[in-house]
Amino acid sequence: MPEIRKDPITGSWVIIATERARRPDDFVRSPVEIRGVKVCPFCHGNEDKTPPEVLAYRNGTGPDTAGWNLRVVPNKFPALRVEGLLDREGDGIYDRMNGVGAHEVIIETPDHFLTLADLAERRIEDLFWSFRDRINDLKRDKRLRYILIFKNHGEAAGASIEHTHSQLIALPVIPRRVEEELEGALRHWQFKERCVFCDVVRQELRDGSRLVLETDHFAVMAPYAPRFPFETWIVPKAHHSHFESAEAGYPNLAWVLRAVLRKLDKVLERPAYNFMLHTAPVSEGPMAHYHWHIEVIPKLARVAGFEWGTGFHINPTPPEESAQFLRDAGTF
Amino acid sequence: MPEIRKDPITGSWVIIATERARRPDDFVRSPVEIRGVKVCPFCHGNEDKTPPEVLAYRNGTGPDTAGWNLRVVPNKFPALRVEGLLDREGDGIYDRMNGVGAHEVIIETPDHFLTLADLAERRIEDLFWSFRDRINDLKRDKRLRYILIFKNHGEAAGASIEHTHSQLIALPVIPRRVEEELEGALRHWQFKERCVFCDVVRQELRDGSRLVLETDHFAVMAPYAPRFPFETWIVPKAHHSHFESAEAGYPNLAWVLRAVLRKLDKVLERPAYNFMLHTAPVSEGPMAHYHWHIEVIPKLARVAGFEWGTGFHINPTPPEESAQFLRDAGTF
């Protein structure tokens, strides 16, 4: 019998096809290949092909020159712009404002042919420090309410440049998906006076069937009501609403994220994927009811179509099975 | 300057890239081709290759034989099953229930090589009568709260069988996207004592910039804050919350839907698309605040990736432009 499960945070229902479950081999494989390009603006030596950097971790070299490990630059084709006034205005029953915000690219390595999963732990840790540094800089702009950090890996997951990078979008509004989490987490808090994410971590560590791995600082799990096959969450054990104030966990997070990406690479043959950092709005102080985390979603061919048409998620792989495949893949 | 716009119904914000807008030619074309297959279970003469029909419009022939114009059968691999008890139960902080419901396929024509846009108006009208007939039959089952009707056209939009068909999923829960619309529409009603969809239709007819076409019964428009390029809504002028009670509009709707699909075929070169019928929950009586409508979303290559990663919609084509392209395409 298929099951209908409710996400304890957002309250969304999903159908989990428990009977004819899709195993990793049932998905059409389309491994992400790095082919190389003539001129890559993100490569070592091409620093003049991007807008001037806003942050870089360098070995004593000057801005916008070679000799860096990680570099943050404004997106050359930004979805939002820092200049200008918000100008909120109505148009009859409608509401609009200017696209004020920031859109930045975090170039994770100068080497074109490495993926994030290939990087040394210390380099992945740098990524988290760069997220923190950019958040702390941007949050001084009081027009901005939310900073969205995410990664699209592979063309199928929306990456238009193959050189490994993450993206940051600073918004004057709170995205719907985050608002749903905030509202759901607040409802749980009002009812129980506990953080729903803390409850989820406790239950998953006890239960174990959806657990992928556990470290001192993190629980990695397939969520109870995943929208997508092999959806995987990295949830810190310590309660912090804001990623930028959870620095103590960054070194361990580097190991954890790399382990998750390598497991996905092994089990699903280097799939395209997205990850998204869910953190509390920068416009808010510490929240007892919200808890930052990372959601990783591999993009598996021939499965995506359904929810676009229906607005409803049907997941052909139970989280207990995806967790077992990822658990059994070992760490390396 | 890009714009940030709010959908007046759900309250979601989207970024509209007004500057470097994508025109139809900027999208990579991948026209849907009907190639034919050895044995198609939806073809005339293969009625024994599907589960027994639950509805058919026939010319006096017997069930599950040839001689039909439209045929509704249970999905051979259903996401939900009619048998069994709901068995709502908790598992610690989690909620689940059995996957009780229905999953049916509406085969729109016996001819493998026609698309919905190719059909005669009278055949498309049949589709709406079949939706009504199935809704009225299924709503007698009091376990079911929502009936989702949608179409995936083309593999890129999630269709696994190329023979043209729509799908119906009857659910014991209300999908999140519909709930968002219901809640938003109720908020508008509480504030204004008017239906937000009626307000949208009035404003769009007056404004004209996002209007694709208008008939006696319908307004077709690009919505003010579309999530996707060339997203197009078909909204009835008369207020009805439930599709199944809006029968007077079906003949006109056949002409309208065909016109919209043909315009999309012309402007975007036979794109894959989804449409979804948004109607009020079958478990509710007539609602003053909700208004049924159809959302059509072409699936345009190389644009989809973004919102998966971000949980936020960035639309590179302003609705004023997509509406103009579709308006200018004429009707035929």
Explained architecture:
The structure is a homodimer of 332-residue chains. Chain A is an alpha+beta fold. In chain A, strands 3-4-7-9-8-13-14-12-11-10 form a 10-stranded antiparallel sheet, sandwiched between helices. A 3-stranded mixed sheet of chain A has the order 1-2-15. A two-stranded antiparallel ribbon of chain A has the order 5-6. Chains A and B meet through strand 1, strand 2, strand 6, strand 8 and strand 9 of A and strand 1, strand 2, strand 6, strand 8 and strand 9 of B. Strand 6 of chain A pairs antiparallel with strand 1 of chain B.
CATH overall fold name of chain A: HIT family, subunit A
Q: What proportion of the residues of chain A form beta strands (DSSP E)? A: 15-25%
- Give the largest interface pair and sizes: A-B, 73 and 73 residues
Average pLDDT rating of chain A: 93
Looking at this structure, what is the CATH superfamily of chain A? Answer: HIT-like
Helix content of chain A: 10-25%
Overall outline of chain A? globular
**Number of strand segments of chain A:** 15
How many structural domains are formed by the residues of chain A?
1
Q: How can the largest sheet of chain A be summarized? A: 10 strands, antiparallel
* Low-confidence parts of chain A: none
Describe the oligomeric state of these chains in a short phrase.
homodimer
Number of contiguous helices of chain A:
6
String of helices and strands of chain A: EEEEEEEHEEHHEEEHEEHEH
> Pairing-aware structural class of the strands and helices of chain A?
alpha+beta
CATH architecture of chain A: 2-Layer Sandwich
